[in-house]
Amino acid sequence: MPVFANGEKEAALLKDTMRRVGARMSRQEFLFIVSNIYHAFESKNYKPWSGVYNDLKEALKQCKEHLFAPITILNVGCCAGYEAEVVREVFDSVDVRRIVLTDISPEMVRRARTRLAALYSQIEFRIGNIEDPSIGLFELVITHNLIHRIADLPRFFRTVSKVTLPGCYYLMGDEPSIRFYRNPECLAVYQEMRTIEERRKWADPRMWVDKLRRMIRPSEKEKGLFRRINDRLRSQFGFTDDLTPREIVKLLHIHSPSNLPKDLHIDFDGFDWNELHRSYLQDFELVQVWTSDEMGGTNPSELPLRWQQLNDALREKYPIDGSNFTVLWKRRAL
Length: 334
Prior knowledge:
This protein is an alpha/beta fold. The chain is built from 13 helices and seven strands.
């Protein structure tokens, strides 16, 4: 059973949601099922854009400088293989003796296999968690856009510590930073951007024409991601009511900030890397932190020039207050 960081209050909220939709299963199985169905429909790949990509690449370069090739790599929560592709931009094939990619979603593992099988000479794909002792030990363990989805953080980080060789590295990438949401200037700019861009979108007549077309003759894809998720939950698992879009988002991103009054609040509202260190990662030393995306996780390159300039100005003024952070940790020697 997941041990929620904020105690039984949040666990009770989750239980109430499960009761409302008729989910007859454990809380852990409930979270697992919703996540897998989401990824079966919406297996979008990460793209090499914005600061998140640059941060990941810089952290990998630092790892390459301090590790003796060839190395072993474990990519936990590999999704469709984005991280392993970026690894190959930094490490040559001969630099990697063995790389293992794991994910709880069979659909994601299939996509990663199709995408990456030819990139490495020794690559393995596993469905499930990383607690199996046969998985081995690694010089570099990577999680990217994953920790805020993990319900039982103590158990997960204990396992990360076990599979990371002493003196070697754990790279935690693209996680929501509480520093951004506690910075009033960053938050004010983000909220202004969201308000203005939302108004601009609704004022675009092309959006209304497209909306009308979808209403008249919707395709299966245009039926809507959340509708398809709920249909699958009803037909396959006997749910009697729908999860709201916000509930689905929060079930997928457990530790992401809750900024709406009716959000399902389960656990942390973003992370403080120092608190993660004190609470869960005492076996590691903090090597370096990178933060990016001062537009609240919105890709700045897709926004009008005004917001791109504000993003750059905020990054200059608050270099570690971006909405996403990447941290490189080093496992203490025994």
